[in-house]
Amino acid sequence: MSRADHMDVAAYALGVLDAQDAERFEEHLATCWACAAELETMVPVVGLLSGIDGEAMAALEQTHTDPALLDRTLMAVRRDRRRTRVRQLLATAAAVVVFGGVSAAAAGMLGDEPAPPQAVPTPGAPTVAPSGEPGDPNDPGVGGKEAIEGDQHNATDPATGVQTTMWLARKEYGTQIAVQLSRLPGPRTCRLVMVRKNATSEVVSSWSVPVGGYGTNQNQLPLELTITTSTPVRDMDKLQVQSVDANGVASPLVTVDGI
Hints:
Elements: H1 3-7, H2 9-14, H3 19-29, H4 33-42, H5 46-49, H6 54-62, H7 67-112, E1 151-156, E2 163-171, E3 174-182, E4 188-196, E5 201-209, E6 223-229, E7 236-244, E8 250-256
Antiparallel strand pairs: 1-2, 2-3, 3-6, 4-5, 4-7, 7-8
GO molecular function, one term: zinc ion binding
InterPro entries: Anti_sigma_zinc_sf, Znf_put
Keywords: Membrane, Metal-binding, Transcription, Transcription regulation, Transmembrane, Transmembrane helix, Zinc, Zinc-finger
């Protein structure tokens, strides 16, 4: 029993031995349990190895004795492996392109879908005057307009007919005063005077009224101002809008009492 007999297991399993060698190996197989066991383990993979032809196997056998043939064989194997890697890379790239196209199409389909409805904020309720009087429909905060911060005070002067709504908001620095004036004819110069509970007063702001006035037949839009003062609300007694003539003499137009 020679070493070559043991080396013929794979060749026999693949069916590449000629008739004489196959017969000789079968005679050896009948008395060699090691080869029989090895052949049994190779049976499941014979189908995978069936793609190797006899010429390739013979060439492989010759590489043991022919160094030049071994080099050529190794070069051929390397080229084949490179081609295989290139094919794998191309296949991977193609798969990525196809997947990317499918993803883009799916994103496009999703993009065509209508956006879910969003909640619309409910407009804030208008501030109610402390006096209990109904709010003026033209006031900010009424009829869907945004509410103004602070306590609301309404007043109409019976002599001049000027109307005002003022909102007083307590702040750390003092008081924020939002003023709305209508039925205010022009041209004239006006000012807002704050009278404190200690009988002192302060000119909080001043402005000019054009010819058309504010909240009049010529200009229906009211005048809206936002003013700040360092005086807190608790120290205020009243707020008065005054008209100032060319000589600096002031006369009241409308007064908000009982702040």
